[in-house]
Amino acid sequence: MKIAVTYENGNVFPHFGHTEQFKIYETSDGKVTESKIIGTNGSGHGALAGLLSEIDVDALICGGIGAGAQMALSEAGIKLYGGVSGGADDAVNALLAGNLAYDPDVRCDHHGREHHGEGHHCGEDKHGCSGSCH
Question: Assuming Cys at both sites, which of 29, 48, 57, 64 could form a disulfide with 122, CB separation 3.0 to 4.6 Å?
């Protein structure tokens, strides 16, 4: 199985569509056999699902993720484990052990709203995130 994690400084990056890196884990028999970090080359939201599909990723671990990206991942046959935070390696090991805490209903539904110059801060209630969005 090949697992991708939104990645920054050793941790799960909190928002799929803004991640600049993925850490890709090759696994066999419930153990990580190889891992590498890849850049997203400035790809955003929908294009990221295509990038993961091209490299034959089976599962994605991330923080928050919008509905459009969720649909693109589903269409690509990539299993989503959203609403995850903390160490990337720890998350992958927990998934392999069958005890990863994730939110199957994770949503970031504030895309396209005016942020009044505040920037994008996924997980702030005033921006409409529900579930574990960071």
Answer: 64
